[in-house]
Structures are given as structure tokens and as C-alpha cells.
Specification:
By secondary structure, the chain is of the alpha/beta class. The chain contains 13 helices and 10 strands. It has helices spanning 36-48, 67-76, 94-101, 114-120, 125-138, 157-164, 182-185, 194-204, 277-281, 288-291, 301-304, 308-311, 316-323, and strands spanning 6-10, 53-57, 80-85, 105-109, 143-149, 171-176, 211-214, 247-250, 255-257, 270-271. Helix 2 packs parallel to helix 3.
């Protein structure tokens, strides 16, 4: 029996941007996105299954008019909600709305200093994101920053750190750009030395007033593994991909995946207009790439790594879009080199 704890829910594909590295090719809302009532049913089902936390994404969440009602439905069940936004259309009037929903936190995407960030999104987007961060922190709403790294902006991490030191943020997460969607079509060089990013985190995580860490598609089992994921306890070890084990993804038309970053129809496990979330989640034949994982599925260097059975070859989504192999990390910074 698997226990659902975390969901990433894309409530709309509508967005004010069409970023060069957007994995979902956001811009316009999908035809036939879930209605408000359908979203309420999904929220109820998530709560009934014991889901503890939902990360709400787009597109741009605030471009869906009923976002407040959907968030409130979740928080009314005691589910903690984090909203991820680009901050571009954020306005002061949203502060009261956020307070009324009981949202746990907001994460703002910020992918480099002004010149770099604006080039990937649009002119003025950096300043608006910073204004959103400032407004949220002044309103005592926990706000974090997420940066998606590629070969260019990874070089600006020290400058970004200097910028973020000036704001009262809760955390800064660094994640690797995955070559899917717009990122694949625009030819962005997504590759960088993951060990250098890990070294950057280790060198600065104890000297900043916020949690600093890497996401699950960077690693694995390098020196300091227990602390580089934003937890200074020293025991936050990567335990393998949680897709279909502890987490799921839901898109704006009701497709269910083990992870919302596995943006490929072959990973759709069902649709919530056709069957219940419970029937999808409790079907032992779904999410097989993780639920039926054995170390024999590991390929390449991961098959020879003594830690392979523990990390499972790393992030399934990143692996797939880089080289089409689910159970082999293409850029392991640690274990697979042993």
C-alpha cells in the first residue's frame, strides 16, 4: 500500500509568459480545463487519500479566476498549499486573498540577475518578481525562490546570492533545467557541472538566513548529501524518485502522472474525468516504473554503483528527457562515479 503525501497540481496552462525553457509550453489555457466543480472534487479526493501538501502551478496560477476557491477547498481540508508563481501579475490586492485562503507559502521563480532573467522571460519581469518577493515578505507570508539552472545562469549564482541576501525569504531551491517542451525546441544548453552547484550550496548554506538547497534532479550521494537539500539536519538523504510512491502530478485537464514533470503522454496513468483518483492511485499496475523498481532495472554506471538501489538512478523525469532512460542518471555527481 502506497500513501499519497504530496501532489503537484497544474490548475491552468494559461500564462503571461512563454519562457524559453518552459517544459509545459505554457501560454494559453488548454481547451476543456477542469471546471471549478471538478477541481473541488479533485481537492476532496486528494484530502480523502491523505495528501498533506499540494504545490499549485501553472502556467500562472493567478491567471485562473477561481484559484482562490480551489486553494480554499484544499486548505479547508487541512491540506497545506504552496503556490508557485512568476510574480509578473502579482499585485498588492492578492495579499488579503492569500491570507483568507490560509495558503502555507508562495514560491517565486527567479532565474538570474535582471539581465539574464529578463532575457529568458521578458523585459521588466525581474523587477516584478522582486516586488512580489518584497510584498509577500513584508506581509509575513512565507516566500521562497526557485531558480532553474542552465549553462548560462549557473555562472551567476554568486550574484544571485548577493541579491537574495537583501530579502526576507524562507528558502532558495536550485533545480536543473530539463530539456523538454520549449527548452528542447529552443536549443538551450541545459548542461552544467552539478558538482559545482553542490559545492556552491555547501559553501554558503550555513552563512545565509534562509534554507539553501538543490532539487531532486541534482546529486547524488556526494559529500554533504544529508544537508544539501535544504535541511541542515544532515539527514535529508535522497531516497529515490517518489513519483507514484508518495507523490503524483495532475494537469489542468485531469491527467494523472506520477510526477507533473514527466510531461509525456506515455506517463499518463489515467484521467480524473473517467475514474476516481483513488482507483488510479490504488491500482497496483500503475506507476510501474517506480512501484515495480528493482536494482536490475538500473542501466549504465548506475547499474554498477553500490548506491544505485537506494537512489534508483535519480530523477525519472530528468533522466527521460535527457537520454530516454528512466533508471540511469546522465549527470550523477557522486554515487555512480564510485
Amino acid at each position: 500500500m502506497y500513501h499519497l503525501r504530496m501532489c503537484v497540481w497544474e490548475i491552468t496552462l494559461a500564462c503571461c509568459f512563454s519562457c524559453k525553457y518552459c517544459g509545459s509550453r505554457a501560454g494559453r489555457a488548454r481547451e476543456g480545463e477542469l471546471t471549478t466543480e471538478e477541481c473541488f472534487r479533485v481537492a476532496d479526493e486528494l484530502a480523502e487519500l491523505g495528501c498533506r501538501r499540494v504545490s499549485m502551478i501553472g502556467g500562472e496560477v493567478f491567471m485562473r479566476r477561481d484559484w482562490k476557491e480551489i486553494v480554499s477547498r484544499l486548505t479547508g481540508h487541512g491540506v497545506k498549499v504552496n503556490i508557485i508563481t512568476n510574480g509578473f501579475i502579482f499585485r498588492e490586492s492578492l495579499i488579503n486573498d492569500l491570507r483568507e485562503t490560509g495558503v502555507e507559502s508562495i514560491s517565486v521563480s527567479l532565474d538570474g540577475p535582471r539581465e539574464v532573467h529578463d532575457r529568458y522571460r521578458q523585459e521588466g519581469s525581474f523587477d516584478r518578481a522582486i516586488n512580489a518577493i518584497r510584498s509577500l515578505s513584508e506581509a509575513a507570508i512565507p516566500v521562497s525562490v526557485i531558480s532553474t539552472l542552465n549553462s548560462e545562469n549557473v555562472k551567476t549564482l554568486p550574484e544571485m546570492l548577493s541579491v537574495l541576501r537583501g530579502y526576507n525569504i524562507y528558502a532558495w531551491q536550485l533545480q536543473a533545467c530539463s530539456p523538454m517542451g520549449n527548452a528542447a525546441e529552443s536549443g538551450i544548453d541545459y548542461r552544467f557541472d552539478m558538482q559545482e552547484v553542490i559545492d556552491f550550496v555547501r559553501a554558503n548554506m550555513y552563512s545565509v538566513p534562509f534554507a539553501l538547497g538543490v532539487a531532486d534532479n541534482i546529486g547524488y550521494f556526494t559529500e554533504g548529501e544529508g544537508s544539501i537539500r535544504g535541511n541542515l539536519s544532515g539527514i535529508a538523504y535522497y531516497r529515490g524518485c517518489s513519483a507514484g510512491i508518495r507523490s503524483i502530478g495532475i494537469d489542468s485537464v485531469g491527467n494523472v502522472r506520477g510526477c507533473e514533470s514527466m510531461y509525456d503522454e506515455r506517463f499518463n496513468e489515467g484521467n480524473l474525468r473517467n475514474e476516481s483518483l483513488r482507483s488510479i492511485w490504488e491500482d497496483p499496475e500503475r506507476f510501474a516504473y517506480n512501484r515495480k523498481f528493482t536494482k536490475d532495472l538500473l542501466t549504465g554506471p548506475c547499474a554498477e554503483c553500490e548506491l544505485g538501489e537506494y537512489c534508483g538512478g535519480g530523477c525519472r523525469s530528468y533522466n527521460w528527457f535527457v537520454h530516454g532512460k528512466l533508471h540511469e542518471s546522465p549527470f550523477c555527481a557522486g554515487g555512480a562515479k564510485k
